[in-house]
């Protein structure tokens, strides 16, 4: 008897399975939710370009998702994706990468892409650590955590990435976790169909290089903690800064309609072609 | 991707007489050569390239964007190149330094793109508004790892225009980044530029792969390519990869074959890539030669002519292609010479390269400080060497 084949296997590069994520890693969950989101939307993967950078979560689309993929240098996936989207506005361009990539080394591209409101969907998997390189402090690591490069304790407050992106001018911003898979799926669908810059911060678990540093050795234990720390946006509005210090605010931060960058760029270019044509015809 | 709006634009452009900055000539050359997308970041002395393209490229149907930094600029053009577009960016030394990692990415992923570096005096902020030729070795070795690279050095505004055709064509033919290695002197020189009748312009194109064919290896030195949105599920990665594009970072043979092929595809086509200009003295008895490039080639040639007017035989060679290095041409040039003088606006970056291939004494006539060589300075150096 042949093994039963997963109904969504066609969306992944089956030939290179099994994947290489560690046991208990949240990246598999993100891939699963992403594939379900794409399937339910009946999106054609041949009309998608998935762009990623360097880090564990960059592997979610590249090599695993079967579409055109662009696995860029560290920190630059949003910049590369900008070029793809400008030349092919008809393709759905999705960036999936980690917190180190998107908010650390590539933070400048993130805020400027949000400011431009370019029609990209950015899914930032936030595992609160540099996992691939062995557990160094990240801009998202909570205060007080001991990492390999903050062996005494982390004294830097974590980056509130979703809030920054919303303030920078994105059309759609949400934060969910690998525990909230159904909400996350809906948010991904909203992000991929929403015109403008869409951003989802996905708080995820890295048992290997984050969990064991805070005494939570399995994915399940870490996931439970993430669930317990989660507070809905609405409830968070009634809480003090102090009360929110070790919480993860989940939900939609914004869903607005703002002028989109690539559409306007093509409009301006078309105007120039037309006025040039008129001037030289007369 | 030459469409009607581009042809219409060029038809209007070519018949006029142009008096242009080197930077502007470079930008017009890019429009002529079919640049579809430009992304850049302001920097002296390269900003005029971006400014002219921002004003003119949209009229020809091309897209132009100012990014948040040079890393984003080269990132955007690499991404755009995978849609099949002809792409370029323009910068100067500091920005060129920032781009280096991504230039390596373009080499490794075989992504055609053109990078204009209008060199200024460094290191660091240096003399921001002054010309130099200090990025010659950065162009060669700026990105990490073993690689071969192409770079061209124009010596006039006209050549800024002309060489853009070569840059875009070679980038497509060899699927590699090509560097237009200008300098601040040539970028800001203002000269008349003659443009071609648009219908006479021939453009090379990327070899298309057959469906199912490998895009990152195979029997040819330069594999065929497909682009995003064509249903090929292309896997582009800067990691060491198999001919089908999938990552394999542990098999020594895979890395060896890939990196050697990337090197060989340029090295073994040197004859088609390398261009030099020589002016051998009519007497045929020269014992001394001058090799130069870019802006410095102008006073260098002036000095050669001045020496000849005094009855001295002096040979002259100008490197148009700086990389890959014209080693056979330099060896031939040096054959009967006792001395070669190499004037350049750096501390002798190319003179050391010439020494490797010339069987005679090589004298560096280097000058830094932001003021180009005068004819007289080089003339005096020639006279000094003859003594």
Total domain modules of chain B: 2
- Using the coordinates above, name the CATH class of chain A: Alpha Beta
- CATH superfamily membership of the largest domain in chain B, which one? Thiamin diphosphate (ThDP)-binding fold, Pyr/PP domains
How many domains of chain A?
A: 1
The portion of residues forming beta strands of chain B comes to 15-25%
Note poorly predicted spans of chain B: none
What's the CATH H-level homologous superfamily of chain A? Thiamin diphosphate (ThDP)-binding fold, Pyr/PP domains
Oligomeric state of shown chains = heterodimer
Major beta sheet summary of chain B: 8 strands, mixed
CATH architectural category of chain A: 3-Layer(aba) Sandwich
Average pLDDT for all residues of chain B: 96
Return the structural class of chain A.
alpha/beta
- How does the overall form of chain B come out from the CA principal axes? globular
CATH architecture of the largest domain in chain B: 3-Layer(aba) Sandwich
CATH topology description of the largest domain in chain B: Rossmann fold
Compute the number of helices of chain A.
9
Q: Count of DSSP E strands of chain A? A: 8
Radius of gyration of chain A (Å): 20 Å
The helical percent of chain B reads: 25-40%
Describe the structure.
The complex is a heterodimer of chains A (about 280) and B (about 375). With about 280 residues, chain A is α/β, with parallel strands linked by helices. Chain A has a single domain, classed as Rossmann fold. In chain A, about 35% of the residues lie in helices and about 15% in strands. Chain A contains 9 helices and 8 strands. Chain A has an 8-stranded mixed sheet with strand order 2-1-3-4-6-5-8-7, with helices on both faces. Chain A is globular. In chain A, about 50% of the residues are buried. The model of chain A has no long low-confidence stretch (mean pLDDT about 95). Chain B has about 375 residues and is an alpha/beta fold. Chain B has 2 domains: about 5-200, Rossmann fold, CATH 3.40.50; about 275-385, Rossmann fold. Helices cover about 40% and strands about 20% of the residues of chain B. Chain B is built from 14 helices and 16 strands. In chain B, the strands form 3 sheets. In chain B, strands 2, 3, 4, 5, 6, 7, 8 and 14 form an 8-stranded mixed sheet that branches. A 5-stranded mixed sheet of chain B has the order 11-13-12-15-16, with helices on both faces. Chain B has a two-stranded antiparallel sheet with strand order 1-9. In chain B, β12, α11 (about 295-310) and β13 form a beta-alpha-beta unit. Chain B is globular. Classes of the chains: A alpha/beta (about 280), B alpha/beta (about 375). At the A-B interface, β2, α2, α4 and α9 of A face α1, α4, α5 and β10 of B. β2 (about 70) of chain A pairs parallel with β10 (about 235) of chain B, so a sheet runs across the interface.
